[in-house]
């Protein structure tokens, strides 16, 4: 399989409408999962590496050899502001694929954040700079940088298929993947779930004081 050249990925990257991403960004991942028949939820072992991290944006997909971050360095040259870099890293927990240096570069580029089917490091510093990162583990062990890697291809992420341009939403419950073609319909359905749960919660609280 050949690797598409970076310029082609940037030109052809099928990103979703920005307003749909903004609507999904306001919703809990749990409500979005419920709105997709409770599917599209990545492995629950993939969690925020600092408390309160959340992100939403179009997926810029990376496949990498486990424990190797060449693909992330390449992605930093091709991703656009607002993108979420989604890394299929084989579930490796032994080597951190990124830390605060890559986090700082992502801030410069205006990226929304990273979700890793692999590990991260420098978790405290990532929290201090406010760069959202979701990972399977944290470890001080650093990555190799030799590849191979692939950008902009379909990947499996935490057991969920991800195409470039699918919408990623992640919060303190974990990571959900919304297929790009369904994003507007899922936003409608998830807003309805959120409204219903808000009303039911208010009713539970009202009952308490009776
Ligand atoms: O050294 C690396 O490639 C990963 C790392 O810790 C950083 O990005 O800060
Ligand atoms: Mg570091």
Detailed description of the structure:
By secondary structure, the protein is α/β, with parallel strands linked by helices. The protein has a single domain, classed as Ribonuclease E inhibitor RraA/RraA-like (Glucose Oxidase, domain 1). It is built from 7 helices and 12 strands. It has helices spanning 6-12, 18-25, 29-35, 70-76, 100-109, 123-129, 183-208; strands at 47-48, 55-64, 84-88, 113-117, 119-120, 133-135, 137-138, 149-151, 155-157, 160-162, 167-171, 174-178. The strands form 3 sheets. Strands 1, 2, 3, 4, 6, 8, 11 and 12 form an 8-stranded mixed beta sheet that branches. A two-stranded parallel ribbon has the order 5-7. A two-stranded antiparallel ribbon has the order 9-10. Helix 2 runs parallel beside helix 7 and helix 3 (29-35) crosses helix 7. The protein is globular, with a radius of gyration of 17 Å. The termini are far apart. The mean pLDDT is 95. The structure holds oxaloacetate ion (OAA) and magnesium ion. Magnesium ion is lined by residues 99-101, 121-122.
